[in-house]
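To fix ideas, we close by showing one paired sequence and structure record:
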Amino acid sequence: MVSTEFPPMPGGVGRYTFNLTQSLRKLGLEVLVVCNDKGKGDFYGLSPKNKENAQVLLNLVSEVKPDVVHIQFEPGLYGLSFDLTNPRHSMTYLDSFYRENKKVPVVTTFHTGFKLSQWLNPASLIKKDGRIGSLGIPLRFLIRSWKYFLNYRAFRNLIVEKLRISNAGIMLSYYMSGIFGGGKVIYHGSEPSVYPKPSKEIARSYFSLPQEKKIALAVGFKTATKGWDILKNMNLPENWIMVMNSSKSYYNKENYDIKLKENNLNGNKNTIIDLQKGFLSDEELSMLFYAADVVLLPYKVISASGVMFDALAHGLPFIATDLNFFKEFSRQGLGITVKRMPNEFSNAIKRLEKNYSIYIETVNSFKNNLKWDFVAKQHASIYSSVINKNNKKEIFA
């Protein structure tokens, strides 16, 4: 199992890889993990800064002789380098492994994938300061937009190439599968870490949260693309409050300081509660989801949302920006998608409240698809298939 990010390192890919690994081991599979030296895997050496990531993996394959290599592919975690003068030379530091490995079958799970419209969105995230002041904003916007445009085809080709070379590709949604034209869809696994389910009163007491109000929850990395800037301008219904908890991304340096405590709604200090607890343990995260009534996802861009899957696993519907990934699940009655505007999110809470029991029933039915045992069995079936095909090729050769 290959993932630069792995607990105790914070990060959604690492948490996903850990839970999948544990579930596969419960099925009786021997799973060895290679990760960054800050994670607790079985082997180390991977880093976004290590230009020898591919060689690290090639050496391990020769030494360990696994039946299959499963790569959790998030390009930035393995070192992503764009060449603006010749986009075909853009690369990750893992690319040569895919081309040179001839010994074992490879399965790749793709954690990132964008259409061009979303890919260009981060180009608008220009800081409004600098040596040339606000007059330089249009120029910086144009430069960054052009760079993103040139890089998109290179980024997409990097994904498509790995999907083509891999013996099997796994996508976390039909939206992502559609972008790249293939891959088996297996939803991001998620289950509560606290059993049995505590009462809402107990869960709220754990964080000293009000008992009498309904809670809209925002949780995750504090990066600009998460879109939290609109939350401070929401006019929540009278019987609702917002609870937030954010953490800094381990690798993404574009952490966004919203300063929520200085921007409480209508001067009411009790409307927004910022827990400021940083990266939560699985148990703490479960308690926080159990304390809430809905999760807010005002993202500017998204490939797949572990927070959404976590919320669904805890029986919570969502309200999200009307991006294609979220639409795939809102069409199943699991939440509501709206324009990324404060009043749209506020009105969506009112709509959700009117039909809340229907959303809860739909979510509780869907969440069985996210159980890690079910997800692990789907992975084990893929491993078995690619191993058998590889063995037949060897026999024929």
